[in-house]
Structure formats: structure tokens, C-alpha cells
Amino acid sequence: MAALNIKKGATSHSAYELRDPNAQLSESHTLAVLVDNEAGVLARVIGLFSGRGYNIDSLTVAEVDHTGHRSRITVVTRGTPAVIEQIKAQLGRIVPVHEVHDLTVEGPSVERELALFKVAGAGEKRVEALRLADIFRANVVDSTLESFVFEITGTPAKIDAFADLMRPLGLADVARTGVAALSRGV
Amino acid sequence: MARMMSGAAMVVQALKDQGVEVVFGYPGGAVLPIYDEIFQQNEIIHVLVRHEQGAVHAAEGYARSTGKPGVVIVTSGPGATNAVTGLTDALLDSIPLVVLSGQVPTFMIGTDGFQEADTVGITRPCTKHNWLVKDTDKLAETIHRGFHVATSGRPGPVLIDIPKDVQFATGSYTGPKTVRVESYQPKVKGDIAAITRLVEMIETAERPVFYTGGGVINSGPGASQLLRELVDATGFPITSTLMGLGAYPASGKNWLGMLGMHGLYEANLAMHGCDLMINLGARFDDRITGRIADFSPRSIKAHVDIDASSINKVIQVDLPILGDIGHVLEDLLNVWKSRGRKTNKPGLAKWWGQIEGWKAKKCLAYTNSTSVIKPQYALERLEALTKGRDRYVCTEVGQHQMWAAQFLGFEAPNRWMTSGGLGTMGYGLPASIGVQMAHPQALVINVAGDASFLMNMQEMGTAVQFRLPVKQFILNNERLGMVRQWQQLLHGERYSQSWSEALPDFVKLAEAFGAKGIRCSDPAKLDAAIEEMLAYDGPVIFDCLVEKHENCFPMIPSGKAHNEMLMGDAATEGAIQAGGAVLV
Ligand SMILES: Cc1ncc(C[n+]2csc(CCOP(=O)(O)OP(=O)(O)O)c2C)c(N)n1
Questions:
Q1: What was the ipTM of the complex prediction?
Q2: Which of A68, A102, A136 is the endpoint of a domain?
């Protein structure tokens, strides 16, 4: 073999610099995915996101058509426009997936999330929590002498805002459903 | 008129109704009822492999060489896990397979029963789709669905997991005609407006190139026929990925050879310098693009693909066309002809002039030797002595695979079986068995490396048992050649674990299996030895002792652009640095 004159020693620089330096910024999209409610379908969808390194910010799923056995999966995800397109195409080729809608780009839509907040406290703080709950149209669904459980629905931002206000007032626990979303109009 | 039968009988009936002639498999406790049914019939031939990975690769070879789906039966637990590499291989190369696995009975699922594995869980990411069938009444329907999903759209492997009690129970059989997969109806016709735009581009392009891939082969022989017509009528140059070889004949006058990491100089430079790139059924794999930022920087890119997720995944294209290659080519040809068969003749003439200049570099030239067989020479002789025969070629993975792609010419589709996407060492021998099962009279050669061959060499037993005269042509460099080459070029010549010590005596190995062994180390005796291999009516292991340190060129190092190719004799000093080393 002809002697090849090659420098000794490999380098350890990152290859990621090879990616497009002008890569666009990531944006949040709400996707509605209509699927056959068959065994493993949620695992397929989630597996796609984890396997290909996509983000899931929120995920809800329930059967919405009991006769046709169709479920609606609502996923809030983040990525550059190219990645969002790729996510939609990848979802679209999962066999039990019927439709993929990007509610963020397909016209106006409504998004709602339900949350339960447990707030423990006494005295002035307890009164303040009740007053703020009223402003946020949160309902009291459980109360003891030391605590309330509030139920609130709204956009994720509204729920975040409520959480911020409850934190100094004795926020003990939170449960959130994740986003449900529908397009407006027909 | 529902017919009642056991689940196991349904499996065999469904396979017959799907026109299956051959299955590859390996029995075990969880599939005994199915094997009992196989025993009691004569229509379907069962090929007993020696390892389930071999069954899946054999089925891939069968599928790739016939265009029909390959069928595999494995038992639960280890049988199913052994199939995982083959499934992943078939997924990445879009090979239609239907794999039936046994499972512990439904009432034992979840108890860590003997030979229980979460087969649908394990194979979910490596199949196009999979099913666990818990009800015998649904079994036949599911198998038919499986065939539909595996073979339609972008083909791929499916797996159907069948618990043993479902095989024993009786249910009603559903025929293939009544089954529909509502949610899965891939679009085959391309958008005619987009096709017309592509025709407009074809009419004016100065420096066009066709870049074709495995999708053309998967679309069927008709697609290859239309491709030839289009290429020859337009006079455009054409290159192909590893997976697409044979769609356009290697002897065709517009053929540039394979492109990519070890592709031809002229093919890669044509890709780099073109003004119109027409991608037909290829997926801009990283072995093809090199550094993305510098990939064909001045071209308009059109991409025809049946899989929407392949479009704009890696490279943003200007003109996407979603559809089956065959259908799109048909429409494209019609529109182009109806508009007067126009091309930019002066532009093309200049472009070909430039390409001829690149061809003149003779990028595959190597220094031959009279004392030692150069691997390139061995393949040149193999090509010369088998050309024109009814020939199918498989490969393993490594340098020999790339040399085979460079030095063997493919005149027709479905004649070249290689593991492209996954790069699975151990693919070639079992694949050659599958090919030979489908084409008993044909010459089937597996171009192998010594290390790859050892990965599934147990399948020699299958070849001998089923009298399959497969020719295992090992380019024996006593090295993990491709690894050694990368270590030489990228890791300062530190040859960590890349030599094969204690290799078996391949001639004796052949004899131990009941096959024929031939060894050759002298270039002068090579032709006679190859002739001896070809003349022998039975499986052969040909131990071709070749130059141990030959490198495979041209080479675009990882993370480099198409115009930064290393040539055989070029100085490679500092050729690979920075980011490249971290890429695979
Ligand atoms: C299953 C598997 N393991 C590891 C690799 C990594 N690999 C790629 S090529 C190669 C060496 C192949 O050696 P050989 O079969 O002798 O072929 P050669 O390159 O010498 O022609 C290895 C280890 C692989 N592709 N597949």
C-alpha cells in the first residue's frame, strides 16, 4: 500500500457546528391527532417523539368517538418550522393515525386546560386565596379548615398566572390535565 | 360464509391466500401449533434457517429480488428478539416483510412467563406497524392487513404477535378481499401542477442530474422502465444511491455510477455542480449529502417520494412531489412529450463536456499487482466472468460492499441486495439464501468480507440443507477493513481491535458444512478459481486472499462536501479534521 501521509491523532470537536448556523428559532405548535383507539397507539405517538428527539410540552388523550373508537391526542410541541413539518409528516405515516391538524397554523383555535390547586393556609392568606380564586373564576371543589382545592380552566398561560399567585399563599399541590384544543368556527 | 378453523390453520390459510410460496423460520414452543399446520400441507415451503436473524435477512433477499413480501415465522422471546436486527434493517431499506411471532398464551402475558418478551413493545420502533392479536376471530384479518401495510406506500416490515392460545382456539376465517385499512391509504398519483413545473425545469435546465434511489426499485419494474425512457430521451446524466443500483443500467450511456461517500468522482461533482437535481425515491441520506451546508449549493431541487416524511427532512427542496415514482414518471413523460420533448441542448452539451472531464480522472483507478490480489481486481474479474449471466449479487457490509457497488455493473432492478440504511454485517449470506430460493436457476453471489461472513456463517447449513448453490465470495483481508480504513484516516493509525485474528480456515469450514471450499491468493490463478466456483453445482465458500491494507476510494470524509473528495493517490494529509471525526 502506498504510504498515506496522515496526521496522527483524531480531533474531538463537535460535529453539531456542522448544522445550519442560521437555524430558525423554535416555536410552539398545538397538534390534534385523530387515531384509532387501538392498543399501543399512544405508545407509538410518544415513541415517535422520544425516538426522534422531539419535545412534548403537553399531551392529552381520550376517546372522542365511542362508536368509531377514535381518540383525539392533543400535543403541544416545540421546534423550528422545519422540525414541526417533519413531526406532522412522521405522525401522518403512523398506520392508525387518521388525521393530523396543526391548530397553530390552520386558523384560529381555542385552547383550554383544567387544573386543580391545593392551597393550604390560615387567616389572611386563606382569605386572599379565595378572593383571587374568585377573580380567576376558579371553583372551590373541596375545603377543610386548613385548605382549599380550586378547580380552574383556561389557557395554560392563565393557569400559570394563577399558580404564580397561589405560590406565596400556600400552594401545596397542583394537577393539570394538559391542553385540549379545537379550531374555531366550522 | 365464514369458515371456522383454528388460529394456526388460519395462519397457513392466510399465507396461501396471499400467494406466499416460501417462508423462512425457526420453530419453538410458542409457534408449535403453526408448525403443526405447516407439516400437514405441501403448498408453502418452509426454509429452516439456523438463527432467526438469518430468517429475516433471507426474507429480505427474497423480497428484494422478487418485489414480493418476505415472510418469516419465529417463536416468542429469543426468537422474536433475534429478529430485531433484520426488522430494523428492512425498515431502513424499505423492504416489505411480514413477520409472525409466537407469544405466550394471553392469560400469561405480563407474568414474565417462560420465553415471554414484550415483542410488540420491542419491535414498535423497528416495524412499519405491528399487532398483538388476542382474538382468533381477528387473526386472519390482521394478517391480511399486515400484507397490505407491508407492501403499500413506502414498503416496510410488519410484525404480528400471536399468543399460543389464539393459535389453538377456533374462529372464523376472513379472506383477503374483505379487508381494508381505513387510516392507511398512501397517495400514489403526483400533483399534476407540480409535475408540470418539473417539466418546465427539465426543458430549460443547463446542468441537470437525476439522483435516484431505492424508491425506484420499490415502485416496481415499470418504474425502472419509465426511468430509462425518460433518461435516454432527455439525455440527462443519472446517478444513483447504493439502494437504487440497477434501476438504470450500468451500461447505459448516461450512467455516472453511484454517488455518495464512496461514490464516483463524476457522480458527486455532477451533484455538486448541477442546476437542477431531480431526486426520484432517494432520501438525502447523510452518506449521500456529506456536509449539508455545502450540498449542491446552486441547484433547484425536486424530490419525488411516496413518503411525505422523507421530503424536507434533511434537505429543503424547491419542488416536492408526493407520489409513487412509477405513476409520477408516467405523468411526467406524458406532459414532457405533449409539450414537444424540449431540453436545453446547448446547455446539456456543455454540461456533458464538463462531466467527461471529471470522468477522465478515472477515479476508480488503482495500482494493480502481480503478486497479490487487489480486491478491486478480484471484483473486476468476477464481473468479467459473470457478466451477461442471470446474476444476483448480495453483499455484506464494509469495504468489499463499496467495491462491489463500484466495480460490478447492474443492468436490471432487483438484482442487487445490500444492507444500505442499517449497514448490517451478516446480511449477505442469509440474503443470498433468500434470493436463491426465489430464483433457483440463477447465479447468486454474496460478495463478503471475512469479518461480516462470520456474523451469520451458520446459514451455510441452511444453504447445504436446501441445496442452494450460493457462492460466497469472501474478499479476505484478515481485517475489519472499513474500520481499519477509518482508523488509519481518522484515528492516527491506531488500529484498535480491527484485525481478525484466529480466522477459520474457510476451505475447511466449507467442507465442514458439506459445501465446497476454494482458496486463491495468486492473481494469475484467479480466473480459473472463479470459473471453478461458477462451475460447481452447490454452495461454495471462495476464500479470496486479498491485499490487507487497501483503502476504498474515492471517499468523501464525514462532514465534508462533495467537492472535497479523497482520491486513491491524492495526499490525504489533514484530510479529515474537526467535526468529521464525531460523525459516523
Ligand atoms: C453488525 C455490525 N457490527 C459492526 C459494524 C461496523 N462495521 C462496519 S464495516 C466493519 C468491518 C467489516 O469487515 P469485513 O466484513 O471483513 O469487510 P471489509 O471492510 O474488510 O471489506 C465493521 C466492524 C457493522 N456495520 N455491523
A1: 0.90
A2: A102
